[in-house]
Amino acid sequence: MELSEDDVFPLDPKEYEIMATIGRGTRSKIYKARCKQNGKIIVLKVINLEECPQSLGKVQKQTAFWSFCQHPNIVNYFGSFVVGSDLWILSEYMSCGSFCDILKFGHGSGIKDERIIAYFAKQVCSALCYLHRHKEIHRDIRSGNILLNCRGEIKLADFGLATSLIRSGRKRKAALSLYGDTCYMAPEILINSEGYTPKTDIWSFGLVLIEI
To answer: Which of 87, 97, 168, 187 is deepest in the core (most CB within 10 A)?
Structure first.
C-alpha cells in the first residue's frame, strides 16, 4: 500500500522541531516534537548509545514486532535512526498523558466510576490479547505505560522490555530474565527461576486495576 505524505516520517533530525521535554530515563530523554514534513506532533525518544552501547541491537529486536503492529490500542511506531552517538525513536504522541499522571494529579483516591474502569480495562485487554496472540510478552505493564489521548483512546506504550516466545522459528515455553517495575511484577519474575509466560502481563494488569 502506498503511503500518503501524512504517513511518512523522514529519517533526518533536521526534519524535527523539539517542542518540550516530557520525560527522562537513566540513559534517555523523551521529547514532544513536530515533524516539519507533515506537521504532526510525535514523541521523540533519544537514547545515548555511548552510555548504553548494547541499546542499538536491543532496540532493533524490540521494535521489530512494534514496527508492524496494527492495533487501535497500541501506540504507533514511526521509525528509528542513529544521529551521532544517539538513537532516535519516533512514536505516536498521546496528548493526555499516562494513567499514572491522571491518578497522581486528578484522582488521588482512585477512579470511583466502574463504567470508566470497565472502558479502560476493555481497551487494555484488547491490546494484551493482540500481543499474546502473536506470542509477545510486554513485561512492563504499569499505569505509566498506559496512555490516553484527547479522543478518549487508551493505548499501550513502551516496548523497551517486550520479549518474544518465538526464537529461531520455534516456540519457547517460557522466558527467563528480570526486567520491569518490581511493584507490578508477578511472583515468578521476582523468583526468576522457572521462567514466565504471557500470564505475567495479566498479573501486572490486575495490579494496575487495583491501583485505579
So the answer is: 87
